[in-house]
Amino acid sequence: MAENRASTNEETYGEGVPCWVDAQLPDVEAGKRFYGELFGWTFQEAYGSAVWALLDGDRVAALAPKTDGRMPTVWTVSFATPDAEALARRLTAAGGRLITDPYPVGDLGTAALATDPGGAVFGLWQPGTHRGFGRRRAPGTFVWAELYTRDTAAANAFYGDLFHDALFGSGAAPDFGRADVTEVFPAEMPPHFIAHFGVADLDDALGTVRRLGGRVQAPPFTASYGRVAVVTDNQGASFALLQR
């Protein structure tokens, strides 16, 4: 493993705050070329065969190879927690499900993968030496997570109970919204999270996505949190571009 250098701007994230995103890809080298050109990221060896994505030296994401070809090619949003085991128990008691029980990732932290009652997949992250994003809410970094679900009332109840302080507590500034699947996607689309990355010019960024072999899944639309387009990279992983 490369030197485990934490970003100087790395924050401490409260429970329920989106704190990290990682992509599981068939070809990490192809992912480095795509995202490096799209967002200006550079890359550094991380854990196992994964790489850190860096923006001006700050960790903003990770790219990892799929360990099984049957796994989806996806971006996964992870939420911070000080105690992954305790949060996992609360999550299952509330009707969610664990895909992977909490497990250590070296000295970096403890991870788990879960679904909400509607089936949308997300991660849990209990920090060790890696607390999460070294930079966010800026062009080329994570800015928002949107859950597309068939039952927004049920999703609001589930996440509102699980992550109450992050969503509704005093001074909360959540980067996490919930919307009906049919607002952007066909009704048959399963519930899922979409990680949003900031761009300075959405139309220019869409041109770059197309030039690099990606495609536009949902053309630009205006949401309460900015102007958005949903795209896929050249390996099929979906994400969104957000201009504010």
Layout of SSEs?
Blueprint: E1 18-25, H1 28-39, E2 42-45, E3 51-55, E4 58-65, E5 74-80, H2 84-93, E6 97-105, E7 109-115, E8 121-127, E9 142-149, H3 152-162, H4 164-168, E10 176-180, E11 192-198, H5 202-211, E12 215-223, E13 226-232, E14 238-243
Parallel strand pairs: 1-4, 5-8, 9-10, 11-14
Antiparallel strand pairs: 1-5, 2-3, 3-4, 6-7, 7-8, 9-11, 12-13, 13-14
Report on the architecture of this protein.
20% of the residues lie in helices and 40% in strands. It is globular and about 45 Å long. It has 5 helices and 14 strands. The N and C termini lie far apart (37 Å). The chain has helices spanning 28-39, 84-93, 152-162, 164-168, 202-211, and strands at 18-25, 42-45, 51-55, 58-65, 74-80, 97-105, 109-115, 121-127, 142-149, 176-180, 192-198, 215-223, 226-232, 238-243. Mean pLDDT is 92; it is low at 1-8. With 244 residues, the chain is of the alpha/beta class. The strands form 2 sheets. An 8-stranded mixed sheet has the order 2-3-4-1-5-8-7-6, covered by helices on one side. A 6-stranded mixed sheet has the order 10-9-11-14-13-12.
> Main β-sheet: number of strands, strand sense, barrel status?
8 strands, mixed
In helices, the fraction of residues equals 10-25%
Report the strand count.
14
Class by helix and strand content? alpha/beta
Radius of gyration: 17 Å
Q: How far is the N terminus from the C terminus?
A: 37 Å
Oligomer: single chain
InterPro entries: Anthracycline_SecMetBiosynth, Glyas_Bleomycin-R_OHBP_Dase, Glyas_Fos-R_dOase_dom, VOC_core
Organism: Streptomyces lavenduligriseus
Domain VOC: 17-127
Protein name: VOC family protein
